[in-house]
């Protein structure tokens, strides 16, 4: 089976040539390198590529996601013999043996996305260990799928996967997390093969900007939190309106009425958006409603208890409402993502 070895390259070092050298004697691999606008300074690296390597070029830097999609399009149109594609980074941090194992697993599991996952053991840069840890947990909640290494660039999949990923949004580092979200939501199996964690010169060759690119990645994931924000706005505004309208009632009755009615309305909005847009759950409607109502009852009881406690301490109703909503947000999000809209896998 022929395999397209796809390597997006932006200002690559000599490690790119060293990686390709290892595949020269392996006829199963068809190397495809994408020069993502590296510039004239790096022309000697690309000029040194052997005749068997296909070189695609972007006249300007467009991002890793754009480079990958350029390669997928080329393989689908020009390399019909390649039934698998494997993506690897140009910085030499993916070993030849690990690439082979990931491809073997992909060949044995047609239709799956296979990741070369790092365990982040030993001397790992803090930004890599922390960034992947945060993304791992948020991704699990948002998608219902557990992936240990969400940021690995070593991935293998078939032509069907190439077609699917060709249409995924994002042109830079956020594209790779979007690939995982697309696979998870579409029911595409995601498998992981452990690979060696390799960082050269404290990952100095990486063009990943820890602030700018992490923000793009987390914004892509945090869009799944948008419905919770919408529900909070509905709940908060409606509670204030109802509290004002019932100002002449006894204080406890006014508070209970305002909180309960606002929670019912915002809960309906939250359930609808979360089920169909946010988590795209696979749980049946009846079971999802039952779980959601049970969770809503617990959240409501907690909400009321905290509201009474804080207002009893002299905290204003408006400020108390904000404090309570922030307190229950994480609990609500985690439970909905993991249990309400998900079948047990």
Please give a handful of descriptors for the protein shown:
2 domains; seven-stranded mixed sheet; alpha/beta; Spore Coat Polysaccharide Biosynthesis Protein SpsA, Chain A; elongated; single chain; 345 residues; 7 strands
Care to describe what's here?
The chain has 345 residues and is α/β, with parallel strands linked by helices. 55% of the residues lie in helices and 12% in strands. The chain is built from 12 helices and 7 strands. Strands 3-2-1-4-6-5-7 form a 7-stranded mixed sheet, with helices on both faces. β1 (2-9), α1 (15-22) and β2 form a beta-alpha-beta unit. The model has no long low-confidence stretch (mean pLDDT 85).
State the end-to-end distance: 32 Å
Average residue pLDDT: 85
Main sheet makeup: 7 strands, mixed
Determine the CATH topology of the largest domain: Spore Coat Polysaccharide Biosynthesis Protein SpsA, Chain A
Number of strands: 7
The total count of helices amounts to 12
Count structural domains. 2
Strand order of the largest sheet: 3-2-1-4-6-5-7
| CATH hierarchy class name of the largest domain | Alpha Beta
Question: Residue ranges: pLDDT <50 for 5 or more in a row?
Answer: none
Q: Any idea what the radius of gyration is?
A: 25 Å
- The CATH superfamily title of the largest domain: Spore Coat Polysaccharide Biosynthesis Protein SpsA, Chain A
Helical content (DSSP H or I, runs of 4+): 55-70%
Second CATH tier, the architecture of the largest domain: Alpha-Beta Complex
Shape: elongated
Strand content: 5-15%
């Amino acid at each position: 089976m022929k395999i397209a070895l796809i390597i997006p390259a932006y200002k690559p070092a000599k490690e790119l040539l060293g990686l390709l050298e290892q595949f020269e004697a392996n006829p199963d691999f068809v190397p495809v390198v994408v020069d993502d606008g590296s510039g004239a300074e790096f022309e000697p690296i690309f000029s040194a590529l052997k005749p068997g390597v296909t070189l695609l070029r972007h006249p300007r830097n467009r991002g890793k996601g754009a480079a990958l999609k350029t390669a997928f399009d080329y393989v689908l149109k020009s390399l019909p013999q390649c039934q698998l594609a494997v993506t690897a980074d140009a910085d030499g941090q993916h070993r030849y043996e690990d690439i082979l194992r990931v491809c073997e697993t992909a060949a044995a599991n047609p239709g799956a996305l296979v990741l070369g996952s790092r365990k982040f053991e030993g001397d790992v840069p803090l930004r890599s260990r922390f960034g992947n840890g945060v993304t791992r947990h948020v991704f699990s909640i948002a998608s219902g799928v557990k992936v240990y290494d969400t940021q690995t660039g070593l991935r293998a999949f078939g032509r069907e996967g190439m077609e699917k990923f060709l249409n995924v949004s994002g042109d830079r580092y956020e594209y790779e997390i979007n690939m995982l979200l697309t696979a998870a939501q579409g029911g595409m199996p995601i498998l992981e093969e452990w690979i060696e964690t390799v960082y050269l010169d404290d990952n100095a060759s990486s063009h990943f900007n820890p602030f700018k690119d992490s923000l793009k990645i987390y914004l892509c994931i945090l869009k799944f939190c948008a419905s919770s924000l919408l529900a909070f706005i509905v709940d908060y505004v409606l509670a204030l309106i109802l509290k004002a309208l019932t100002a002449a009632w006894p204080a406890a009755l006014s508070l209970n009425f305002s909180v309960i009615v606002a929670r019912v309305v915002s809960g309906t909005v939250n359930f609808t958006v979360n089920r169909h847009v946010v988590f795209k759950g696979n749980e049946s409607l009846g079971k999802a409603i039952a779980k959601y109502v049970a969770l809503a009852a617990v959240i409501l009881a907690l909400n009321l208890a905290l509201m009474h406690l804080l207002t009893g301490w002299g905290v204003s109703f408006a400020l108390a409402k904000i404090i309570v909503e922030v307190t229950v947000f994480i609990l609500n999000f985690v439970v909905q993502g993991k249990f309400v809209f998900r079948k047990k896998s």
